[in-house]
Automatic annotation (TrEMBL):
SUPFAM superfamilies the record matches: Winged helix' DNA-binding domain
Subunit comment: Homodimer.
Lineage of origin: Bacteria, Pseudomonadati, Pseudomonadota, Gammaproteobacteria, Oceanospirillales
Major place of residence: cytoplasm
Protein name: Ferric uptake regulation protein
């Protein structure tokens, strides 16, 4: 995964190219999410944000998250109701998430053939996909090694 500074530079460039306002609050929310290896819940973000911006309220965080998702900078982890930074926001793509149930590590995959097969089958059935979330829950190698040593 990219380091936080690289990710922030990519986000700045992308927002500038699209004419999207990358406000200080949006920037800070992305920094907080990018600084974690797992997902962050909205209220965890709010707790952190209120220590810096006393006026921050839930709508502040949710609007920032909505913007970041719309820009492709953040993904929502549906099963955890949490958010994770996209390691490659510079291009539009389908993705799949590997989520470790022990340590919370989230890794993003890009299996284009999976996306293509799903899109084809949906079209064949006359279905218009608006959003796709593929999450695989399990154990990462490090956690499995720790379990095996116990």
């Amino acid at each position: 995964m990219n380091d936080t500074r690289t990710l922030m530079r990519q986000a700045e460039r992308q927002c500038e190219q699209r004419g999207a306002r990358f406000t200080p609050i949006r920037r800070r929310v992305l920094e907080m999410i990018a600084a974690t290896t797992g997902g962050l819940k909205a209220y965890d973000l709010l707790d952190q944000l209120t220590t810096e911006h006393a006026a921050a309220r839930p709508p502040t965080v949710y609007r920032a998250l909505e913007f970041l998702i719309d820009q492709g900078l953040v993904h929502r982890i549906e099963s955890l109701n949490a958010y994770v930074a996209c390691p490659c926001p510079e291009h539009v793509h389908g993705f799949q998430l590997l989520i470790c149930k022990q340590c919370g590590l989230v890794e993003e995959l890009h299996l284009d053939d999976v996306d293509a097969q799903l899109a084809l089958r949906a079209r064949e059935l006359g279905f218009r996909v608006e959003r796709q979330t593929i999450e695989l829950l399990g154990s990462c190698e490090a956690c499995r090694a720790g379990i095996a040593q116990s």
